[in-house]
Design goal:
Layout (H helix, E strand, L loop, with lengths): L1 H22 L11 H4 L3 H43 L6
C-alpha cells in the first residue's frame, strides 16, 4: 500500500513539474549551442531570406536612381524653359 502511495506522489510531482515547464515562456530558454550551425534545415531559410533582402534593397536603389534621374531631368527642363522664355518688362 505504501509503495502505491509513493508511486502516486512521484507521478503527481512529475506531472506538476511538467506543467510548470510547459507554462514557462519559450523566449526565456537560451538557444541550444550550435543550433543555427548544426541545423541543416535552417540554412536554406537563411539564404532565401538574405536573397529576398538583397532583392528588396536592389529594388529600392533602382527606384531612387530612376526617381532622382527624373527629378534632375525635370529641374533641367524647367531651367531651360526659364532661359528660353522672354522676360516681362519690369
Amino acid at each position: 500500500m505504501s509503495k502505491d502511495l509513493v508511486q502516486q506522489h512521484r507521478t503527481a510531482w512529475d506531472q506538476e513539474e511538467q506543467d510548470l515547464v510547459d507554462q514557462k515562456p519559450r523566449h526565456t530558454d537560451p538557444p541550444t549551442a550550435g543550433y543555427a550551425k548544426g541545423n541543416v534545415q535552417i540554412r536554406p531559410f537563411i539564404r532565401a531570406h538574405n536573397r529576398e533582402l538583397r532583392f528588396h534593397i536592389h529594388k529600392y536603389q533602382v527606384f531612387w536612381k530612376y526617381y532622382s534621374y527624373k527629378l534632375f531631368k525635370m529641374k533641367q527642363q524647367q531651367s531651360d524653359m526659364r532661359k528660353d522664355s522672354p522676360r516681362s518688362p519690369g
